[in-house]
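Form 7-S
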Amino acid sequence: MDETPAFALEGGCDCRRVRYRLEARPLFVHCCHCRWCQRESGASFALNAMIESELVTILGVEPELVDTPSESGQGQLIARCPHCRLAVWSHYAGAGRRVRFVRVGTLDDPDRLPPDIHIFTASKQSWVVLPPGAPAVPEYYDRREHWPAESLARREAMLAKEAAR
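Output:
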């Protein structure tokens, strides 16, 4: 019998009122260098771990969902602590509420989730140097080409479950 503990990472906001736990390894981790993410984060990129919403357990106060504009024009919901206002994850229009794009920097141990891919590198800050051999694309990517088979299977299961409702 396998005694290996399940994958779990915890995180939260600065005031520690919003706390959460990832109950599984994320589907994929994006390091997005688009200008919209740069402006929204106030940094050179945004590092987001995509995970099924049902695999994120709320351990503290429920974050507030704030409807925010997005470059696509479809908007996004940003989950923010109602007290310190820190953003802990987003729901983008394409994936809806079924997937959370968790801000890796809000994890207690963010070093455990390095990026699987750098996206929108055509607009990255010129002084940002990507590690040699790091997967990178100038815009977005084809998930069938870059995601691991396990993540593709989890995505299909999530979509099938949603379609069955």
